[in-house]
Amino acid sequence: MYQSLLPILKPLVFEGKSGILHISHKYNDKAQLFLREGIIEQVETTKLRGKQAAATCARWISITTEFQEGEPGEYTPDPEIDTNSFLSYIEKTFNTIELINKNISDDGIILGIDTNKLNKTAKLNAEDLKIALLLDGTRNIEQVLSMSAKSELAVLAHTCRLIMAGVAHKVIVKNIMPRQDQENFLQSLNEKLTDLVGPAGSILVDDAFEKIGSTPKTLAQEEIPALITEIGVLLDDEELVELDKWSATYLSSVEM
């Protein structure tokens, strides 16, 4: 469950509390918000301080918090931190986080992209498309976060938009073949189909992958029979016999 700072921080501000709000971010960072009589006077993260630290932790949503009430101790107030602006920002993002929680269960899920729908959807912006490029059906959300150079909130918001547009979909975890095994199999398959039908062989492979709902990079051992079957549907009887012979010989010669 992703967490907004709003229901945690807003009562502290409105009730004029003094103390330190400790925030732990799942991705190896921490923050301290120093409050005095309901005013945020300073924010510190592991590497940042002041307005930049405030902007950073406002975009964390995999968090746990603890409020230490009382004298906040020694710190240097930063006049550039505006409590009302900070609250206003997390209020604006509250509904977004609620949508994220409805569509993304956790950062371990793996998402793939329906390229046909992606090309036909006009509502997505350039930032949505950047995230779509990272959702290749093999990376989970945590891995996408580490590659994106964007805040956690931004990545999850764009991912949520892709899901709601019907472009991104959850990928069932499969026993994906090692990359070299995939490449060897597909190279041998394409060579055989070129012998049988010429250059159109690669098109048959692409069509078969689409029909079984997989891709060359996410091919699993258990999907190979279905892939061969879909290719065989488009061959004549003699070609199908040759493909079946190749398939039996190839699969028996390698440890899949």
How is this structure best described in words?
The protein is α+β, with helices and mostly antiparallel strands and 256 residues long. The protein contains eleven helices and six strands. The strands form two sheets. It has a four-stranded antiparallel β-sheet with strand order 3-2-1-4, with helices on one face. It has a two-stranded antiparallel ribbon with strand order 5-6. The radius of gyration is 26 Å and the shape is elongated.
Question: What's the SSE blueprint?
Answer:
Layout (H helix, E strand, L loop, with lengths): L5 H9 L4 E7 L3 E8 L2 E7 L5 H7 L5 E7 L13 H21 L7 E3 L1 H6 L5 H9 L6 H8 L3 H13 L3 E3 L8 H19 L3 H12 L11 H10 L3 H17 L3
Antiparallel strand pairs: 1-2, 1-4, 2-3, 5-6
Helix pairs in contact: 1-3, 3-7, 5-7, 8-9, 8-11, 9-10
Mean pLDDT: 93
Strand content: 5-15%
**Helicity level, as a percent range?**
40-55%
Largest sheet: 4 strands, antiparallel
Summary of the model, kept short:
The protein is an alpha+beta fold and 256 residues long. It is 51% helix and 14% strand. The strands form two sheets. A four-stranded antiparallel sheet has the order 3-2-1-4, with helices on one face. The chain has a two-stranded antiparallel sheet with strand order 5-6.
